[in-house]
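Objective 1.3, modelling of assemblies. Example input:
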Amino acid sequence: MTKKSRWSFNFSTASLVLIPAAVGINYIGKFFAGALKLPLWLDSIGTVLASMLAGPVIGALSGAINNIIYGLTADPISLVYAITSVAIGITVGILAYKGWMDSWPKALFSGIIVALVSAVVSTPLNIKFWGGQTGNFWGDSVFAFLIANKYPVLIASFVDEILVDIPDKIATILVSYAIFRGLPNKLTLVYKNESEIEKL
Amino acid sequence: MKTLSLYQPGRSIIHKIDPVTKLLFIILAIFVPIIIGTWGAALLTLLISLSFILIGRVFKKVLPILGFSSIIILSVIIIQGLFYVNNKAPLFTLGPVTVYREGFYYALNIALRIYNILVAVSILVLTTKPSDLIEALVRKGFSPRIGYIFSSVLQIIPQMMSTVDTISDAQRSRGLETEGRLSARIKAFFPLIGPVVMNSLISTRERAMALEVRAFNSKRKKTFLHEEVKTGYSRFLQFILLAILLAAIVWRVLS
Amino acid sequence: MKRLVVEDLKYRYPLSQELALNDISFAVEKGEFIGIVGPNGAGKSTLCQAITGLAPNFLKGAYGGRVLVDGMEVAKEEIAEIATHVGIVFQNPFTQIAGSKLTVFEEVAFGLENLGIPRYEMKKRIEEALELLDIAALRDRNPFDLSGGQMQRLAIAGIIAMKPEIIVLDEPTSQLDPQGSEEVFQAVQNLSREGMTVLMVEHKIEKIAAYADKVLLLCAGKLIDFERPPKVFSREDLEDYGIAPPVFTRVCKKLNIKTADGLYPVTLKEAYDKVVKILE
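Predicted structure (tokens):
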């Protein structure tokens, strides 16, 4: 079996129905995190799973559509953060392709990478739209402390974001990895992008 | 079964404007104030958007959308008012804390920008049926496949949420702790989310096949069950909106 | 006239070692009702998917032999085009609702819109399909608000509206309650009466005995038998293939009641007629 380039994807019907499922999973993750009053967002489990199953392009699309839907049905500002979701989808897709998602320690490492990417992409958006804040109480307290002590907004905002992102993204990746391991072969095969039909 | 939507049915003139024009208006409402860059422009845009909301009779429904962000905006005003880097001139003093003019205005600017986005987007989402928006875009040449994704998400989420209710009840009746210590709550997360997530992923295979056999990948030219509702003045409105955008850019370049 | 011809059909799933379908050949006449039976993992679903071109066009893997629907070789056609000749209904009614439509009427239109059917024709076909499946009264309901049996009939309507000559049903009642199952069986019987060629996978063996013109017995990817129900259900080795004969067949077997051709009756009516005859 030859592995195709990580960017190659056919916009198959299977990948396409994966996207609404991914958005739904994101939504449910966010719902339960809220219902259980967890100090995390856990709102990108679906995006991560879509990337692991069908690659960075489908992952990125899931992320973008997730934020557009959320923006149009609950909080319009989440439209802006579609960029972050896209970045998460792409990063996980590449990490999974490179084999950085096939054991618990590797998944943990991937969680840290995803947190960094997420923080790097979100920080400029936070600064542009919110003056640097994230809306998370603990993160914003640190932000206030840092700018009160004359740290540059860029640094303060990045610290604010990463403090929230590190635990959140590690948890997200670990939960996704656990679910991924439990999926039947029959399903993962559908997303393997094999296009050749062998003749018998 | 409800679809996930903020749409408020109505017969106002705003409801009758076609979805693409409303989309164009959002773009305008976000970018014109940024292009012009003055307080007046931002304020005027916000007032225009709000008046559309009033004409559409959906003002009450816009409040929760604004409320969502208002708490954060309040914290922005406090933090920037107190600690903004360029803070020099005190605005007022409350006991031991001083709020500064520069930070306060900076925060107001942020608030204005956020509210502009919120209200402009609200016009679209409160007065347009999601299925009409998606169908209008597909007719304009937007990929029907992407259109399908959007409409199915809107139905799938309420669908999954009803499964969620069933599962939560079942798990709770089996004695799953969903309150109390953080560690207990973290432990509860997995049994709650696991079954729904697995189920929805596994069913994608059959769902994909079911779509395929309903000619989802057909190469034929798609037709529509419903006739397109044409509003005579939509072209005219879109022309005006584009003209305003252009004027703003010209104004910015010349001044 | 042969509606469906399957010749030396072989199929293997990707990354799998063994054949899911191993050299299967049979032919179905226009208007026949075929019941497909076999133990779990026999390849019943795979056979359904091969008849509709999903294997190999969607599932990929390895494929040999031919499936001809009215002379058209399915493996060489687009799935969307095959759909206008042979339709398939799956187990779970939920996964078959397109999910992008807000009413039952629009839901049936989904496939027709994709096929580019003109609006007038589309409406006519939807009306006919709703009527045939007895769900016309539900036309303005949201598809997700329906009961399981109603939803499965809606799924069938969505397929029928595309006007296939053959319909394949892969355990259409396995996830339904008794009432929903009965509704679906009634609907399938209606289709058959209207002259449609039907292939149905079903565990409820009494239903197969009552409806089917022929029974296709499948085990481990191989076709074991393809005969009239009394013939298949009278086989001495039937239970070796994980199939319990219909209850009337078992009773008649115990009592050694046979019909004129030396086979056991398979339905209540056949058994009753035979017993009455003996008593006379």
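Chain A has one domain: 13-194.
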